[in-house]
Amino acid sequence: MLRKTIRTDVLDVAYEEHGPADGAPVILLHGFPYDVRAYDEVAPALAADGSRVLVPYLRGYGPTRFLSPETPRSGEQAALAYDLLQLMDALGIRRAALAGYDWGGRAACIVSALWPERVRCLVSCTGYNLQNIAASVDPAPAAAEHRLWYQYYFNTERGRAGLAKNRRDVCRLLWSLWSPEWKFDDATFEATAASFDNPDFVDVVIQSYRHRYGYVNGDPALEPLEARLAEQPTITVPTINLHGAADGVGPASDRDGQSEKFTGGYERRMLPRIGHNVPQEAPAETVAALRDLMKGIPQ
């Protein structure tokens, strides 16, 4: 594994690279509040197959840095997708297999929906991950609303202060609530928690959770992309949805109502006892999903 950095137009993106430089590209994307360590058992297995595996730190995490203090510290969905596309362009990657969950899954879903020619196949944990901001004002049943306490917390100045002061405490609690059957230890958490010390972490996180409800404006440069996402485009690339049956954020229902959002081949795989952090909790299943997709799709 090599730690590298590549410059895009707004970021120095830090990423880890596994496998041969001429292998078929696979990009693995982490979520909030996690980092590249989620793929420590996934990336080497895919690299052993001959793939070139890239695991970037998202904006606001780990060693990834903004180039200019003037760039909005936005965590909106368009920013995450833009960063992924820019990363692929900077590395000269024409087409890649994508896998992601949470924020990273959102970036992967958006690129798959809007630039399908760049995506070989997609593994998306929990499935269709594009935000419908226009509909975000509609309240959900109480059983769903209470799981989003952290989002409402972050929409207050007390929440911003709390995340800044107690970021490890907040994030560790979220790990426990979202993956109730995952018995991670202190060392596992601390290996990731260092990424939350990024100087832009708090600003990016707070903006993300405020923007998704329409309470703050996004980056003006990304408004055209957000307009396209408001149309809730379908995903036309072959996709496997890995859904943890014990996901404490979005519990899996017996009925999958997302199939109409995928028109290029779609399969949902339920993972018993697995929570929100699918790649780290279920690395073998994550590797298997990518292998199953890639074996039937030319590079």
Describe the structure.
The structure is a single chain. With 299 residues, the chain is α/β, with parallel strands linked by helices. It has one domain: 3-Layer(aba) Sandwich (Rossmann fold). Helix content is 35%, strand content 17%. The protein has twelve helices and nine strands. Strands 1, 2, 3, 4, 5, 6, 7, 8 and 9 form a nine-stranded mixed β-sheet that branches. A hairpin with a 3-residue loop joins strand 1 and strand 2. It starts with a strand and ends in a 5-residue tail after the last helix.
Tell me the layout of helices and strands.
Elements: E1 2-7, E2 11-18, E3 25-29, H1 43-48, E4 52-56, E5 65-66, H2 77-90, E6 96-100, H3 102-114, E7 119-125, H4 142-145, H5 149-154, H6 157-165, H7 167-178, H8 186-193, H9 201-211, H10 223-229, E8 239-244, E9 266-271, H11 278-281, H12 283-294
Parallel strand pairs: 3-4, 3-6, 6-7, 7-8, 8-9
Antiparallel strand pairs: 1-2, 2-4, 2-5
Helix pairs in contact: 2-3
Q: Strand fraction band?
A: 15-25%
Helix content: 25-40%
The secondary-structure class comes to alpha/beta
CATH architecture heading: 3-Layer(aba) Sandwich
CATH topology: Rossmann fold
Query: Spans of 5+ residues with little confidence (pLDDT < 50)?
Result: none
Distance between the termini: 22 Å
Q: Helix count? A: 12
Q: Give, in order, the helices and strands.
A: EEEHEEHEHEHHHHHHHEEHH
From the alpha-carbon coordinates, what is the Rg to the nearest angstrom?
A: 18 Å
The count of DSSP E runs of length 2 or more, i.e. the number of strands, is 9
Q: Name the CATH homologous superfamily.
A: Alpha/Beta hydrolase fold, catalytic domain
Q: What number of structural domains do the residues give?
A: 1
Tertiary shape: globular
Assign the CATH class.
Alpha Beta
- Quote the average pLDDT: 97
Biggest sheet overview: 9 strands, mixed
